[in-house]
Amino acid sequence: MKSVELAPGVHWVGAIDWNLREYHGYTLPGTTYNAYLVRGEKTALIDGAYHGFEKEVLGRIRSVCDPAEIDCIVVNHIEMDHSGTLPEFVRRMPGTPIYCTERAKAGLARHYDTTGWEIRVVRSGDTLDLGGKTLTFLEAPMLHWPDSMFTYLGEDAILFPNDAFGQHVASAARFDDELGIDAAMAHAKKFFANLIIPLAPKVLKKLDEVGKLGIDIRMIAPSHGIIWRSHAAEILKAYTDWSHGVSKDKVTIVYDTMHGSTTMLAKAIAEGVMAEGVDLRVCLLRDGRYEGTHRSDIVTEILDSKALLVGSPTLQDEVLPTVAGFLSYLRGLQPGRLTAKKIGCGFGSHGGMGGAVARIEEALKEAGIEVIDGGFHVNYRPDEDELTRAYELGRRVAQEIRAR
After folding, report:
1. Confidence band for 337, pLDDT divided at 50, 70 and 90
2. b/e map of 189-214 (b: 16 or more CB within 10 Å)?
């Protein structure tokens, strides 16, 4: 187990989880649990990993120093993918002080038996002098749990923001320039779309707060994925843009079908969008003859789309279960929190009184999406006139987003 040097006296000592494929409701190609060792006259360990990865983290620490030389532990976030190794570390290093927020202290006691732990509460602006290395703490509640905080290493201008600016990817690469900026940004975009969207107003506030501190940030070392050493400015700008809802002239169409009628409508709408020269993604939800698109990949497409159209046939006065699950996921993410609002509508087919389109548009409104056009639904299979109307709906949506 080898560590990786970020700067003199600063090392990555985390763990790589090559096997994880689903987390927080979305798919991923594995991940990393990033922990960092900062060594001045004293040594600090920042963050940890899931229980079960203790040997890997300790092995990387030993490539730098004896774990017994660790003088303090910083817990930026108590979620178990970062704190799961903490009980073993405390057992091996009894009496080592743990620095965290007030809420983190309370949260740790709900996850573990903290009897005898030396927990020291810090607040924004508090510092920890390691002798030649100085850590400054910045509370960041709800980025993405109430206990979260950032840690800043002034001498090397490194920000340790825990989950902020992270990505779920398992790789031999530790840095953005090693993985490649396009791949790094793609993973960061999916991470933001599936975890950070509900927190967008808080992201903007925290970025503004960090900016007002006037601190130099040359490297960003998150708790998952690669470390931003060559493109720190780019990921900061991307977070600002994504939080504001900066989007393309792009439409995302999401649907499922029973006997193909809703597919016919989706294709006709898509043709109308393309006729206007607007970018487009069409996502079938269901697994069956086709693999389907996972909801986590769909919301990643929605992040930089100006319009979302959702289609479903009516089943017992409701949407299909696959569509219902997607809409529930979307409501939780609340893309309407973004500054730039998205537009959308529902479409579908029915054999009786219908109901699916109304349910879709209600859910879109609850997700903060501006519903336009009053929905579009047909009885049984669409005829040529109805397909033409679906085509025109696609054109109108494309024209609307171009005008915004």
Report:
1. confident
2. bbbbbbbbbebbebbbebbeebeeee
What are the tokens at 185? Answer: 């940004």
> Are 112 and 50 members of one domain?
yes
Q: How far apart are the first and last CA of the chain?
A: 53
The whole-angstrom separation of Cα 111 and Cα 119 is 14
| Domain enclosing residue 318, as ranges | 251-403
Cα separation values, 355 from 153, 254, 285, 328, 345, Å: 56, 17, 19, 17, 14
User: Which residue type is seen at 229?
Assistant: R
**Residue 91, number of CB atoms within 10 A of its CB:** 9
Q: Which residue has the tokens 């979620």?
A: 79
Domain boundary among 221, 243, 265: 243
Please check whether residues 39 and 163 belong to one and the same domain: yes
Question: Are 179 and 221 in a shared domain?
Answer: yes
Return the CATH number at 139: 3.60.15.10
For residues 256 and 208, state if they share a domain: no
CA neighbor of 302 nearest in space, from 267, 275, 338: 338
Best CA proximity match to 185, nearest among 176, 193, 194: 176
Secondary structure string (H, E, C) spanning 8-53 = CCEEECCEEECCCCEECCEECCCEEECCEEEECCCEEEECCCCCCC
For 89-111, what is each residue's pLDDT tens digit? 999 999 999 999 999 999 999 99
Q: What share of the chain is helix, strand, coil (3-state, %, to 5)?
A: 40, 20, 40
Strands 158-160 and 219-220: parallel
Same domain, 18 and 154: yes
Domain count, the chain: 2
Write out pLDDT tens, residues 305-331: 999 999 999 998 899 999 999 999 999
Q: How far apart are CA 27 and CA 20, in angstroms?
A: 9
pTM of the predicted protein model:
0.93
What are the residues facing 158 on neighbouring strands? 153, 219
3-class DSSP state of 251: strand
Same domain, 231 and 255: no
